[in-house]
Amino acid sequence: MLVPARPAAGWERPAGRPAGGRSPGEPPTLKDVTSVLVVEDDPQIRAALTRSLSTRGYEVRGSANGLQGLSILVDAHPDAMLLDLGLPDIDGLDLLAMIRAVSPVPVVVITARDDDDQIVRTLDAGADDYIVKPFSAKQVEARLRAVLRRARPESIDAAITVGELHIDPATRQATLCGRDLGLTRKEFDLLHLLATRRGRVVTKRQLLVEVWDQPYGGTENTVDVHLSWLRRKLGETATAPRYLRTVHGVGVRLVDPAAVADEQPDQV
Questions:
Q1: Which CATH superfamily is domain 35-150 in?
Q2: Where are the domains of the chain?
Q3: Strands 179-180 and 202-203, sheet pairing
Q4: What is the pTM of this model?
Q5: 40 band by pLDDT with thresholds 50, 70 and 90
Q6: I want to staple 66 with a disulfide (CB 3.0 to 4.6 A). Which of 32, 87, 144, 193 is the partner?
Q7: Which of 15-29, 49-63, 120-134, 174-188 has the highest mean pLDDT?
Q8: Cβ density class 113-142: b for 16+ within 10 Å, e for less
């Protein structure tokens, strides 16, 4: 578990390591990403995160309240952000909306609640991932690495391979083990969106917004039906999944079956 330590002042940079901050709007890369902003009002947790990430080579700056954190974000342009929802000056979800209005920075939310409604609201508000307290230093770093990988610029026409599944947006063709899946337009759009966020849970509301362009209308049943059709063409079911994994009450994620062979069956 994280061990509390004295908070560091300003960015904590290892000796001889260049600064990792970026210009506004510039996407991070795995080669030069180093800076993390920690917005957490608990001084022990904030200090422990600062110490843990600093010893792993990250530049870290902390804030005890949301509005100060937003100011640091705008001025310093960190490569990623850890955000506690329980802040003293502003609701964490309101702050997340403000962050998304000014920055595409990857945000990992820290929360003490693990109920489905809270997680769905957090992801819909713009969080890239979440961690439930208590957590380990290894888990925090793994989550950061994951959101930073997903933040890499990727050509809209770049083909994506997940296991034996190949998705080519240039030809709008998806194949499994070399066999054309024969997807409809919406089925392809749905699969491609999930593939661009492979490994990450995408909520049904996000799918309605980005695939069906229905931010306020539409029903989740539309998503369920298309997921069912897509599963059938992938040769799987919700109760015997391979590529499409349901997270009960939250959403769905696309995975490489070989990489998650030891996972528990989906909750449906």
A1: Response regulator (3.40.50.2300)
A2: 35-150, 160-260
A3: unpaired
A4: 0.53
A5: very high
A6: 87
A7: 174-188
A8: eeeeebbbbbbbbbbbbbbeeeeebeebbe
Q: At what angle do helices 116-124 and 92-102 cross, to 10 degrees?
A: 20
Tokens of residue 136, six digits: 């380990």
Residue given tokens 């920075």 in the structure block: 105
What is the pLDDT at residue 198?
87
- pLDDT at 21 exceeding the cut of 50: no
Same fold, 35-150 and 160-260: no
> Six-digit token pair at 77?
């342009």
- Asked whether the CA dihedral 88, 7, 110, 26 is positive or negative, the reply is positive
If you classify domain 160-260 with CATH, what class do you get?
mainly alpha
Concatenated DSSP letters of the chain: -----PPPSS----TTPPP----TTPPP-TTT--EEEEE-S-HHHHHHHHHHHHHTT-EEEEESSHHHHHHHHHHH--SEEEEESB-SSSBHHHHHHHHHHH----EEEEES---HHHHHHHHHTT-SEEEESS--HHHHHHHHHHHHHHTS---TT--EEETTEEEETTTTEEEETTEE----HHHHHHHHHHHHTTTS-EEHHHHHHHTS--SSS--HHHHHHHHHHHHHHHT--SSS-SSEEEETTTEEEE--GGGGTTSPPPP-
Report whether pLDDT(22) > 70. Answer: no
